[in-house]
Amino acid sequence: MTVTMDSLEPRELARWWAEATGGEITADYEFFLLVSGGPIALGFQKVEDPTPGKNRWHVDFKADDRKKEVARLVGLGAEVVADHEVPGLVWTVLTDPEGNQFCVSGDDH
């Protein structure tokens, strides 16, 4: 299974997600790159204009130490949007360098 993201700069975004997920770029077709080796295969395709508004899908990650993982991703260039909590679940919404939202949930150490 591959989830594909539209991107203005797919090579840069693929590199970022490869580092964020512990994967690697396994295919580079110039306008489409594939990152594999992480928890899911991610594709990045070149588009002329980004999709307007909030993305309709996003990736959710689970971390043993949510705060530590969020700090690592922010160090790579992610930005924190918000923290949320409901009984039994805590998560942080972040954006990647192109503004695509994703979440990290996990124990609050």
Question: What does this protein look like?
Answer:
The chain is an alpha/beta fold. The chain has two helices and eight strands, in the order E-H-E-E-E-E-H-E-E-E. The relative contact order is 0.21. It has a four-stranded mixed beta sheet, covered by helices on one side. The chain has two domains: 47 residues, 2,3-Dihydroxybiphenyl 1,2-Dioxygenase, domain 1; 52 residues, Roll (2,3-Dihydroxybiphenyl 1,2-Dioxygenase, domain 1), CATH 3.10.180.10.
In short:
This protein has 109 residues and is of the alpha/beta class. The protein has helices spanning 10-21, 66-76, and strands at residues 2-7, 24-28, 32-36, 41-46, 59-63, 79-86, 89-95, 101-106. It has 2 domains: 1-47, 2,3-Dihydroxybiphenyl 1,2-Dioxygenase, domain 1, CATH 3.10.180; 58-109, Roll (2,3-Dihydroxybiphenyl 1,2-Dioxygenase, domain 1), CATH 3.10.180.
